[in-house]
Input
Amino acid sequence: MEVRFSGTAGVLEGYLHLPEGNGPFPGVVVCHPHPRMGGDMRNSVVMGICSSLAKVGISSLRFNFRGVGESQGVYDDGRGEVDDALAALGCLASCEAVAEGSIGLAGYSFGAGIAMKAALRDDLTRAVSMVARPRVDPEDEVGERPSLPMLFVVGGRDRLMPTDLLNELAAKLTTPPEVHVVPEADHFFGGQELQVGGVVAAFFQRWLTPSL
Output
């Protein structure tokens, strides 16, 4: 169902996916790739993640960052977009069909970096999944939440994910991040969207459903 919620730059548009059956369900906010490169909430990888989550009984909220589609505001170079993700978390948490304390964050490419930064700023998030994050930012304050479960999904032919920084991040965490490599994939995962979605869905199924 279509949803609208308030962000710091205005009203944001999104779409809430609910699984079949009776809730409450765990829930995941899914962040789309770079707005300046055509990214929006209808991206095929984002859709693959949402579809796969529904199949395992997890709701999801995909949304457009500020300035994309019908979302108000203008692109803010990744800063305000973190606020957008936090607003989406609040929206998802307020849904009656979503279980309290069972919320995760996911993102693809640019959205993966936003998802991680938002997860480190808000304790609503119980787990975070990052698909094809272009790089691991050494400024990410992972020490704020050292036990936060993390999943990195990377393409075997994607040259944008430096393993040295990923290893440096892993050393700062109480819970080492999970890493899943899709051998034949590049940064865009063409034709492999549901495979990626299945990996992400299985991760959240492990970390979000035990509390129900």
Q: What stands out?
A: Strands lie at 2-7, 10-17, 25-31, 59-63, 98-108, 125-131, 150-155, 178-182. The radius of gyration is 15 Å. The mean pLDDT is 94.
